[in-house]
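Ticket #4471: structure output looks truncated?

Reporter: J.K.
Steps to reproduce: submitted the chain below (198 residues) through the standard prediction queue, then opened the result file.
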Amino acid sequence: MLSSCVNNWRGVEALANGYGFTYRGRHCSEFGVNLLSYTVHTPDIREYEDQVDGIAGVIDYGSEWGKRPIDVKIDIDPNDAQFKVRQSQILTWLKPTLAAGVLIFDDVPDRLYYAKLSGRLTPEQFGKYGVLDFSFKCTDPFAYGQESIFETTLTASPSLITILSEGSEATPPVIELTNTSSTQTVSGITIINEYKIE
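Returned output as attached by the reporter:
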């Protein structure tokens, strides 16, 4: 019973501090769920290498990012429904047979992941109260920020526009040009590839 009381207190404190998450457009509080803790792991690494007899070490053919696991611990505020019913409702919300959904944690609202449930919900039940441990997997290992829109009006030619990305990975931009002139055409546009600023 002590474990139940401690976890429940932590859950209430977490909810009071706005500590939760949104998945597929629904916040965990809609299900009476409190986020106790979570860990966003670094992505797995796929390494391509080969061993050659008589040569020390290995031949390295490069590496790529693999999937990213996210471990989550939640508890459930007791109500009139039985714990098993609540667990079933949560599983329906997290339904792993659907495509990956958008996952956003309250304490980092400007970062989202495309994730889906991986493995089982592991319950620890105390009457109508309980704690669940489970994991998401992100087959797309990257975290995404909010869409950044840059708008400007060109009034002179030539003009130079510099657009910076705050992410750590190369991001292909979408560039849209609108010509408001009725007498001139837009021509001579050059796009220079992104480069890293040290």
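Triage note (M.O.): checked the attachment and the full token line is present. Residues 1-16 have pLDDT under 50 and may be disordered.
Status: closed, working as intended.
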